[in-house]
# Entry
Amino acid sequence: MLLLSKIKNKIRPNYRKKKWPGLINAYKKYLPVSSKTPIVTLNEGNTPLIFSQKISELIGNDTKVYLKYDGLNPTGSFKDRGMTMAISKAKEEGSEAVICASTGNTSAAAAAYASRGGLKSFVLIPDGFVAQGKLAQALMYGAEIISIQGNFDKALEIVRDLSSNYPINLVNSVNPYRIQGQKTAAFEIVDDLGFAPDWLCIPMGNAGNITAYWLGFKEYSKIKRNLKLPIMMGFQAEGSAPLVKNIIVKNPETLATAIRIGNPVNREKAKKVKKESKGDFQSVTDKEIIDAYKILAKEGVFCEPASAASVAGLIKNKNRLKKQSTIVCVLTGNGLKDPDCAIKNNEAIFRKNLEPSLDNIIKTLGY
Ligand code: F0G
# Structure
């Protein structure tokens, strides 16, 4: 027995010895929590930063492209980072219920963390525009779901009104604790690379995440001296590009339903990020999003369409890059969230309903 445990310890690499405690415990000293905060966690965070050989080659110029795969969080999106903070703080404040508007991922995360923390959750979603996986999650995790005949922007307007008049805690990204939790993704990138990338490419909807990353990089630069800050490149879908066009889009449209948002609540903060980081906001078409989605899948990384906007944007800008740049593309959500999109947009060989004989299968395979 003793011998076995000795062997186990020897072959187990050091970094597996310590269990990841969730991002609040890991980054406690940089977060607004105290010993009184009841931490509601699913051990979120610590997601992989995956080097992509294929996309690096596609970009050329000795560029190194990494994918921050936040779709590997417990509910399958980056929202878990913000939600562990928002729900823990709501619980600390004595709230009994939380509410959010959502294109799907926020509602999944809110429902999961609220249930885990013993709080009730209400979610407002645009009817018919939430991907199946996300809807399934909200149903299973135990939210009370209200779908409206309107888009995300309308839903957000309603929940903002409601939460300011009733004792329900709002957990959309106007909640400052959401941004605090989400900034830890920037910490992880710097911890993994040892420096900040030259560019951070990120999809934008309500623009909470780009705000959070920038806050994270800036805060880390105060701790780690000589940390060069990245240029922040935010991408929106062409039919839902209020930040690129600097307008309100009344009827946003895109197949990337996660970012189907026409009036981002963090507009002013995002503008500041762009200015401070000397970054840029651009749009990508649905076709460019799907092309990038397929390229990523061939690298073995299945993300949801909105997430692929970061890679689509990078591809569009490849001629602007300096030689030997390091790029991080944020993949915000897991591909399993939106199975319909995958089933409609692939070039797989899928031969159906064959006669189940060995001969027939061998012949079909071409041997
Ligand atoms: N990617 C995914 C997969 C998202 O779900 C979202 C936003 C974004 C990107 C954009 O992030 O809003 O911080 O700029 N989803 C929200 C939701 C709106 O309700 O799940 P953002």
